[in-house]
Automatic annotation (TrEMBL):
This is tRNA uridine(34) hydroxylase. It comes from Aurantiacibacter gangjinensis. One of its GO terms (biological process) is tRNA modification. Catalyzes oxygen-dependent 5-hydroxyuridine (ho5U) modification at position 34 in tRNAs. It catalyses: uridine(34) in tRNA + AH2 + O2 = 5-hydroxyuridine(34) in tRNA + A + H2O.
Length: 318
């Protein structure tokens, strides 16, 4: 980032709270975001707010002042990072049934979640052999990095987590097995629901990483870290590493999956067109269409305009 360029601040936030009429909150929130040139996605639901936004720091501050006036949001926690360029193409405020979709309507994080564990205390917890460590993210996220010894449920969506746990509970927590569960996710929001779910299933000792992987990577030095790899994020940075520095992965615009540097050397990788993961699932005609779209995106970038087809897939509530 040049010294003359204004930094782009990225703010990731969520808050479980009661919104009686989420739709009534949308117009003003959308207005303050657009008035300040803020881009990203914010989700509103009866259970609260979730999202990631980016802009100049003063613009982000204006939006956060507004969000803190919403019911129950005065103490909302926000995780900040920086980007060299705007990681979003537009601003979206969306109404949802859930701010993170688990599909378990009886689970309410406001009535009880697991024990929060500070990043500086996380290593000791997950190193304990009496702790079973579960990565609650989706398989394509886990593929870019995870904690040492963590179990990967290999889910395609967070909606699959309850079924996975019920099917594997005995193997994880049966007689003679670990007596406590520690879970983690990108920013902490999925663990609010997954720990509440485990407690509803009768698991007593449930812990989760406060602030998620992002807070851990921000707070714990690489020399002391138990993290391997990079952390997938839901914007055009694709991944971040320790200190929340930009990562090394690209995004395949055909299948929307992260592409490792080693996979970029494959003859099946073509920027904007294909990657080894999706090459066999796409036709030549489809790749020709992706190639045309990619050329249009590059031309739009050179002209300093937007190409609407380049929008990052909105998967952050999964």
């Amino acid at each position: 980032m040049s010294e003359a360029a204004a930094p782009i601040q990225v703010a990731a936030l969520y808050k479980f709270t009661r919104f009686d009429e989420p739709a009534a909150l949308k117009p003003a929130l959308e207005s303050v975001c657009r008035a300040n040139g803020v881009k990203g996605t914010l989700l509103l639901a009866p259970e609260g707010i979730n999202g990631t936004i980016a802009a100049a720091p003063e613009a982000i501050a204006s939006v956060l002042r507004h969000i803190r006036t919403l019911p129950g949001c005065a103490d909302i926690e926000v995780k900040f990072s920086e980007a060299e360029a705007m990681p979003f193409l537009r601003m979206k405020v969306r109404l949802k049934r859930e701010i993170v979709t688990m599909g378990q309507p009886d689970i309410d994080p406001l009535t009880g979640v697991g024990h929060y564990v500070a990043p500086e205390d996380w290593n000791a917890l997950i190193a304990d052999p009496d702790t079973v460590v579960i990565d609650t993210r989706n398989d394509y996220e886990v593929a870019t990095g995870t904690f040492k010894g963590a179990i990967n449920p290999e889910t395609e969506s967070f909606r699959d987590f309850p079924e996975w746990f019920r099917a594997n509970r005995e193997a994880l927590l049966g007689e003679g097995k670990a007596r406590r569960v520690a879970m983690f996710c990108t920013g902490g929001i999925r663990c609010e629901k997954s720990t509440a779910f485990l407690k509803s299933e009768g698991v007593e000792e449930v812990y989760h990483l406060k602030g998620g992987i992002l807070k851990y990577l921000e707070s714990v030095s690489e020399a002391e870290s138990s993290w391997n790899g990079e952390c997938f994020v839901f914007d055009q940075r694709v991944t971040v590493g320790h200190g929340l520095a930009p990562g090394s992965y690209a995004l395949c615009h055909a299948c929307r999956l992260p592409v490792a540097p080693s996979d970029m050397q494959s003859p099946r990788y073509e920027e904007g067109v294909s990657c080894p993961a999706c090459f066999d699932t796409r036709t030549d005609e489809q790749r020709a269409g992706y190639r045309t779209r990619h050329r249009q995106e590059m031309l739009a970038r050179e002209r300093g305009t937007k190409h609407l087809g380049a929008e990052f897939a909105d998967q952050s509530d999964d």
